[in-house]
Each structure stands twice: as C-alpha cells, then as structure tokens.
Specification:
The protein is mainly beta and about 100 residues long. It has no helices and six strands. It has a six-stranded antiparallel sheet, with no helix packed on it. A hairpin with a 2-residue loop joins strand 2 (about 25-35) and strand 3. The chain is elongated, with a radius of gyration of 18 Å.
Length: about 100
C-alpha cells in the first residue's frame, strides 16, 4: 500500500503575530510491503518546512522499518531512521536504530 499526505498550514488569524505568519508545509510518503503473513516492510520519507519564505530551513526524515506480527495483538518493530536537519542546527542530524514491542488490547 502507498500512503501520501501533504499539509499546508496558513495561520493568518494568529493574533500574536498580526497575521504575518509564513506557510508551513508538512509531507509524508509511505510504502508498506506485505512480504508474507505477519511480515511487513515500511519505507517512509517525511518533509517539514516551517517557513516557506526561507530557503534551507526544511528538515527531512527517512525510515526503514521491519514489522513482525507473530500472533494477534503482538507486534515487534525494528527500524532505522535518518534525519537531515537545517544547516544552522547540524546537531539535529542523526541516525537512529530502534526496536519496539507493541501489545494491542
């Protein structure tokens, strides 16, 4: 399955900023591959652009996640996530490996 989402936030009615707020843009594209029963591979890319009037201020994040569901209501997830930050904040660039166990009831 493929999931795509684009959000544009235009907050001109913000009393704190007198309506002088640039648009924010947020995007998501996700591909889910059903490898076999109980095994899923998820590939995701995300974009966050807090100010459309500035260049080089957007952040992106890519994920590769393997999901294993051996029985109903139990899922193990293993993934790698890479984040690219704005040049002004290079400390926010990082790669993360994660493991999660979900129990649904």
């Amino acid at each position: 399955t493929i999931l795509g989402e684009i959000n544009i936030i235009d907050d001109d009615n913000n009393a704190l900023t007198n309506g002088d707020v640039p648009q924010e843009r947020i995007g998501l594209l996700e591909l889910n591959l059903d490898l076999s029963q109980g095994h899923n591979l998820k590939i995701t890319t995300e974009l966050y652009d807090p100010r459309d009037d500035l260049d080089e201020d957007h952040e992106t994040r890519q994920s590769l996640v393997y999901e294993y569901t051996p029985i109903s209501n139990l899922q193990a997830r293993f993934g790698l996530r890479s984040r690219d930050a704005i040049p002004q904040n290079p400390q926010n660039e990082r790669d993360t490996f994660f493991a999660q166990l979900h129990f649904y009831f």
